[in-house]
Automatic annotation (TrEMBL), chain A:
Chief place where the protein resides: membrane
Family from the record: Belongs to the ABC transporter superfamily.
A GO BP entry: amino acid transport
EC number: 7.6.2.9
InterPro entries xrefs: AAA+_ATPase, ABC_osmolyte_uptake_ATP-bind, ABC_transporter-like_ATP-bd, ABC_transporter-like_CS, CBS_dom, CBS_dom_sf, Gly-betaine_transp_ATP-bd, P-loop_NTPase
Entry's localization field: Cell inner membrane
Domain ABC transporter, chain residue ranges per copy: 31-267
Domain CBS: 282-343
Cellular component GO terms, alphabetical: plasma membrane
Protein name: Quaternary amine transport ATP-binding protein
UniProtKB/TrEMBL annotation, chain B:
GO MF annotation, one: carnitine transmembrane transporter activity
Keyword Cell membrane in annotation: yes
GO biological process, one term: choline transport
Stored PROSITE patterns: ABC_TM1
Name used for this protein in its record: Glycine/betaine ABC transporter permease
Start and end residues of each ABC transmembrane type-1 domain: 99-278
PANTHER family: GLYCINE BETAINE/PROLINE BETAINE TRANSPORT SYSTEM PERMEASE PROTEIN PROW, GLYCINE BETAINE_PROLINE BETAINE TRANSPORT SYSTEM PERMEASE PROTEIN PROW
Pfam family of the protein (one): BPD_transp_1
Organism: Roseibium aquae
Amino acid sequence: MADPDGIEIKHLYKIFGPNGQDMVQLVKDGMPKAELNEKHNHVLGLNDINISMPGGKIQVVMGLSGSGKSTLIRHINRLIDPTAGEVLIGDADVCKMSRTELREFRRHKTAMVFQKFALLPHRTVMKNTVYGLEIQGVPMKEAEERAARWIARVGLEGFEDNYPNQLSGGMQQRVGLARALTNDADILLMDEAFSALDPLIRMDMQSVLLDLQQELHKTIVFITHDLDEALRLGDRIAILRDGAVIQQGTGQEIVLRPEDEYIADFVKEVNRGRVIKVDTVMDRSRKLEGGITIPHGVMLEEAAKTFADTGQSEANVVNGSGAPLGVLTVQDTITAMVTPAVH
Amino acid sequence: MDLVEFPSLSRGTLRDMRIAIDGAFREFTRAYGETLEQIFEPVEDFLVFLEGLLIDSPWPIVIAVLVGLVYLLSRDVKISVGSFIALFLIGVFGMWEDTMRTIAMVSVCTMLAIILGIPIGILMARSDRAQGFVNPVLDLMQTMPSFVYLIPVVMIFGLGKIPGLIAVVIYAIPPMIRLTNLGIRLVDPDVLEAADAFGSNARQKLVNVQLPLALPTIMAGINQTIMMSLAMVVVASMIGVRGLGQPVLNAINNQYFTMGVMNGLAIVAIAIIFDRATQAYGKRLQKHSEVVHG
């Protein structure tokens, strides 16, 4: 299956205030957020964002509140108009679309899941789920058939006629997810979709999403303030602070090579065993004769479990066809899993 | 300089001004009165038809239909039985015809208020400019003593049903407009954003999100409008609107205590029937908001 289009964000600026346009140059010249606010009474929302979000993958945008992450995701379907810059999806620049084009784009190309669910309280689960199709003008019978499939897929079978208020938070967000998936759009925008849920339910929903993504291969943009969530879900992660991207890469890259103190602080508490892959740690110069094997691409935690179960202290890391790629030792595994002393 | 006496315009100037304005208005009345009357004719015809229907139909059928309507709205046996008893007593005490006239009047006024008020409320919710313009007009409509705007209305339409109708609607429509506006403005912005994100156009947003979510507030507006039109019945009787207001007015003028109280109580009874039925209906529409899951 061909992967859907990715999303290219180029030189995106958002400055809130009456004359945002005029302020772009000041920001480009390096005026910091605080000064812009103080001198010109404009709020810097996004500062020169460049992210290439791969098609068919999960791109996480992480940042604390006020970092601009929710503003950023709203530029992808232009719920917020940019001050300057481009958001390219395939050949189309979202920022240049007319109102009608934008509406069509939102109807067919994107679907969104919201932090506070944003379900229609006066509609049943089924009627909420068909909302996107109803807007598109799909006949109700067909819409309900398609919706029923996704309601079942997110585990809400039997709740079709319930109202959102009758469901728990986790179940309401499943409705939100079903509503987005029923739209059958290539791009799924998830704005802190699981942040309002209890930790256990959040883990559960993350699993649901990862499961779905295995078969759907949508281009997912996932906003979160939770690093563990970011590392678990993200094929790629971009970290935002004060409206600017301060580091982007895979989870492993960010954990192993934090760009600055701020990110280093962030990743300090992370369970590295679940982020770092054996490929990173193995010794590529050696190959073992016989002994146990570990498939490449698994996380250190899993490798450690293999060592513990077998009592061995060395293993071959092998690729898909079983050919050895390098050697992993218990020593290296433990060293890599322990957080290095902070300088 | 004399600071005690306010330097007002001279009496002559004021008189000339009044004469000029009154004269101009009289001209206007002569020129357009007939046209305006024609515009309102269908409304008057409908009111006359409804009145006739309520008065000329056999009373058991009227009671059955009215109580049936109350039940359909409220789905509440207690409210329906209460309405039946109230209507029956009104008949027993000889106020049936007047009550039917008042019910017809209030129904038509409420319909007019809804038909006019909801679109204006929607417009206000959409545009801050419209709101800035309409709000002071509503303030004026609500605080201006009704007798004052009865003067020009009577000058144009003479005495009768239409001026009464207009006076009642002017008095009763502000809550309809205000609460429609408020209800739409209070709709959860998160839900609206979701509707936007799925590509809703303005009409779809209005029909699917704004109006349904504003409905409880709009229902409160309808309820208020009904109550206020009933409150105006007595005032309207001063310009020739027949119904329960007239005997009350008669009672005031002649100090007929019992007659005043009886007709007053009939107005109260109708008010309570209308109020309970519409409230229960509004509540029934909100069944989905009952939180079952903690």
